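Researcher: Batch entry, complex prediction.
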Amino acid sequence: MNATRKREGGLRRRSRSETVLLFAVAYQKFAVAAASVQEIRSTDSLAGNAVEIDQPVLSKVRHILEHGGHTFYVVNAGAHFGLPVSRPSLLLILRESRVAVLIDSIERMTEIPAPYPLPLAFAGAERRWYRGLAYWDDMVIPVLQPGGFLTAQEFEQLERAAKSTASQHDLQGVGPA
Amino acid sequence: MRATQNTAQSSFIVLQIGNRRFALAADAVVELSAPVRLHTFPHTSPAVIGVIVRRGRVVPVYDAAPLLAGRSFSHHRFYVVARRQFGQASELGAMPVSGECELASGEMQPPSTGSPAYVCGVLPVGEDSVPVLDFNTLVNIYVSPEREPAGAGASS
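Model: Structure tokens for the complex:
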């Protein structure tokens, strides 16, 4: 009974708030903590820094980005979330992560109430994807977990693919596309 | 001892899902809610079709119609909100209801042999016998891992 009460209390909206970026992928809105985004770039501006993975091991990651002396795996958010194909035009480069995320558009940067925990009914990969659900402007918006785009196993797969791509390019004398 | 000796008259909510009628023990039902906006987002949990917001809470919505009535229905009149147990914890869950709801009193009879596990009894209503659902068992069976799709993005 006490556990039930504690849990119900946890579901109540708390007064804390946080600043998030609201963005869209295939008309679906998401939020991510503004503090977890290092940079937002147009996909057009990245042509010289992105390398296409020769033999993609994950359908959601087809490029590697060299940026600021670091390597980022470019995750197509639409493919990651299983959304209909869209035309991503922006790249969110995440802070303290080796992930950059392709998205369609930024809606706004705003302050939202602290997110509700994801209900226990959601028991699949979404528990890794989302930190919670925000209720804002009469909408329920999933708040992303920045570390939820790639698992440790996926990172390993990508590292192997990246090494293979790099050695292919070394042999052919090719630089970033 | 007769099977009905220990049963008392209890209250039940009789609800319609598709063309079929089911009952839930009234004390298991937290709320009958108007068809408020269903919010959807990508996820991989089978049978969960989204969430509604009720009284400051985010409530997951289970579509049990494919299991109970053979298919989903795009129009519904209510959400029946009940409590689902997760070990020691619990949370509210909602289920869309297609037609009118009634409050009925009666003695629940044992389920007929071969009834699904989520039917905990039968309620005589007029000339009908309405299966009484155990909400917790229903959603637990319905969202069991065996039914989970292999891929991500079973977007609700």
